[in-house]
Amino acid sequence: FFFLYSHIPSASTKKTEIYVTKQSRSSRCARSPQTMTLSSLAITVAATTSTTLKKQSRNSKFSTLALFFVATSASSAARAFSSSTPTFLPRHHQQSLSRRSGASSTLNNSVIYNTRGGSLASIVGKKLSLSRRFSSTQIEQEVVSEMDEVKAAASKISAADKLALMRQKMQENGVDVYIIPSDDPHLSEYVPAAYMRRGYLTDFHGSAGTALVTKDAAYLWTDSRYFNEASLRLDAGHWTLMKQGQPKVLTIPKFLADLATSHYTTNSKPLKVGMDAYVHAASFAKELNEAFADAAKDMEGDVPPTIAAIDTLDGKQNVVDSIWEGRPDLPKNPFRVHPMKYAGMTVQDKVTKIRSEMTEKKATMTVFSALDDIAYLFNVRCMGDVETCPIGIAYATISKDEVALYCDPEKVAPADVSEHLKEAGVTVKSYGDIVSDIESHLSAGKKNKVWLDNGRSNYALSRVIPEAALIDAQNPVTAMKACKNEAEMEGMRQAHIVDGAAMANFMAWLENAIVVEGRSVSEVEIDEVLTGFRAKQPGFKEVSFPTIAGVGANGAIVHYRAAEGSDLLKYLDRTQPILIDSGGQYEYGTTDVTRTWHFAEKPDDEFREVYTRVLKGNIGVDSMIFPENTPGFVLDVFARKALWEIGKDYGHGTGHGVGAALNVHEGPHGISPRWGNKEVLKAGMVTSNEPGYYEDGNFGIRIENLLEIVEISSSDDATNGEEPANKKQKVAAEGKKFLKFGKLTLIPIQKNLIKVEIMTDDELNWLDSYHQEVLQKVKPLLEEGTPAMEWLVKSCEPIKRD
């Protein structure tokens, strides 16, 4: 230890505080520093200096010595600090732990971390995998911590001061309006901290929203999922909340067109609208220009063809960046190879299929901008670039003679990644070369055409392609990725089995804490404990989205996120329900589940009524049999029918696609009352099924399962197998294919919240059948006699029908 410490300059000169956290059984959320043995300290120092050894000295003797200290210390340290309950770190440390422990590790009870140096070393049980543990040490960025830093930075400066600085910069750049979206250059739902510009400016951090600043006003558009949260976060004295989809609320193009009309009438000159071309969809720029042209036509008198113009301020700094002190750096975390046993299809085979479709479209180049498309195409994943999403910052193109990946060189530095891409015939290019390469391809031949999806690509890429050379259509990867092959689907099934085991352990702990011990447990601790149990499962990487743990009124905030020190933070006890929406990213699959729990001895009758109707909606979708080529919106009514019967509804969609070890939200399909998405449902797709009900200021209810879409043959039961035998019918084989849903999520539904009298026999049969499937698949992963096993068996007992 002393030899290591004295030979690493960065470690010896850095003031370090080391703690071991240990959960106390007797007190709520007790966390206290424990005395460390020398062997335990050696683990921390070895891990802390591991990256330095690799990056600075490159001395194999030092690296070997570091590994030696870890290997000789792990078992004794684990014994020294062992306990039967897991340790729960702040979320960013928890996720870093899962990132670094690897598939063969198990999360033990003690975690050692450096509170100032940024490094984290974990004792991950007796199955510590040294190779996996140290292969990840180069990932130093803790994404969730950076997001917290963005939130802190946003709160430090008042809305008035930030807007004053914005308007000063807008004036310097000669624009009247500036638009700030949620997006990065890849139009991602979740973005790296460096692109959280809208969050920094508005202090609203939901995943969807667009800010617009004028010389004398500021607006935020967001959808119904975030109405509640946005109204709480925005400074109402300076920001106006625009509730998308509500009556009399204009869209951004229509709002700006009206503003342009007024501006031209008053000033006799066009309105200048500033925007960053790299973070707006090409389709959005087109909508703006069309709205401006239409508004000009409606004006009387001598009016120019357009009364407003987009100014992308090329060559100038993004306006928000110019006022954002301490903006985080762009991430450069390395890719990892996604194994064939989980991918199910080689890169070469994917490229061949894409080129075949390009021939049909008469495209000579296809451009891929969405990060999950690129991860899927090249069978790679990444940890740390985008919070909770296993994707890395990059572009890609395919032409008849080249497959190119545009990214930072550090992302392909690992030898196995470099070799994997080389074998697939992939050329790695600089991230910044994408626009010039598109231009070069077009100039190389007059007949060359570029296939680019304007709805999923930024304006900077699209505007260099002449309209005659543009094939604006859904790119071929989107459909390939949506319909999982058997290897991908098997990985998804396995992920949900282990996720069910994690949830059984968690619920046994939570029920004991609330009902037996009589504790009040904070939303943050619930988040941390649940993540801890997931981290014990093989192949766990990180959560699949920020956990939503909303007690009471916070459950009505659809995308609520608990935080220490927040005025909204609540504690769960027996008097209030909790809505928990959570999921895991595993090496082989992605999960997303919501359950609403209530530990009251006698839950409120009205609450049970609504809960039961939400469950009926879930069953209504789950048990559907439908013909092929049915759009998702057709099924949405079955999720809402029971709620509509008592004059209630919910504002969000019912279902979204889910990636296979990829993004938890994936297109192109969905289940929603909005008819705009006419994408048909196909076998191999995965969708969520999540009806809910939200009463602002009181509670939220949501029950969500993930489902796989499977084809029914003429010999299959048309009833999905849940109804009594006398009601079974056969699907007529008349040349038309029918589809049904298969269950992925394996987590019990709380039975004592169900009003049996408003459930049908078929619905009760469905519930019992579902619980039997949960028990059959999850039980083998639990030990007999454990609290988790007891909770699972009890929760899966047939429901009492009297």
From the helix content, strand content and strand pairing, which structural class follows? alpha+beta
Spatial strand sequence of the major β-sheet: 7-6-5-4-8-9
Helix content estimate? 25-40%
Terminal CA distance reads 67 Å
Q: Quick one: how many beta strands?
A: 33
Shape: globular
Please mark out the parts with pLDDT under 50 across 5 or more consecutive residues, or reply none.
Answer: 1-143, 721-730
For the biggest sheet, the summary is: 6 strands, mixed
The percentage of residues in β strands lies in: 15-25%
- pLDDT average, as an integer? 83
Q: State Rg.
A: 27 Å
- Total helices: the number is 26
What keyword list fits this structure?
33 strands, 38% helix, alpha+beta, 6-stranded mixed sheet, 802 residues
